[in-house]
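[#protein-structures] MJ: dropping Spore coat protein B here for a structure pass
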Amino acid sequence: MENSSKSNGTKTFLEGLVGQYVKINRGGPESLQGTLVAVKNDYLVLWTKEGIVYVSTSHVKSITDFPSNKSGGCKPDYIKASSFVGVIRALNHKFVQINWGGPEKIEGFIAEVGNTSLLLVVNREVVQIQLLHIKTIKPLGQNTSRGDRSGGNRSGGNSNRSLVENRARHMLPKPVLPLKVNRQKGDRLYEKSPSAV
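AK: finished. structure tokens for Spore coat protein B:
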């Protein structure tokens, strides 16, 4: 019962910070700053210079608010899921950045989201990532920026995106199908499906 009251108190504190400019985690590569947009069951929604970032609360070590920097104006659109895994599922078949910085930061196309992991296509590699190790996730290529970002040529992004999405889908492993049964031994023989060749 005591644990429940502590988590309710923490959530109430965090909800009081909605609309405030905050810093999540004090330092290091996973430290990020922006306007706290929403507090959900197990994740936070942060509006940064690079766009909307979804932060798993299980990986938040600290939150510092900057009360003088109260954000005014409109709220950006964001994914409203019941859980952090729900956000990840909503980003299936999209380009994302997983984890904010350091050696765990990775960008790619989510090809599939399973119960405990996802498959991310990065260049010509398929990377499996455990969902519980995802600290933050951010959609890429959407114009969710607050306008403080400079540089970067975005022309032709949609045609390049379609090309990469098609390549990513074709790189996924094809199912292995049974082709014939060896009637003498009763063993099935497996071979790659014709579409995989």
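MJ: nice. Helices lie at 2-15, 84-90, 157-171.
AK: one more thing. The domain at 2-174 is CATH 2.30.30.600 (SH3 type barrels.).
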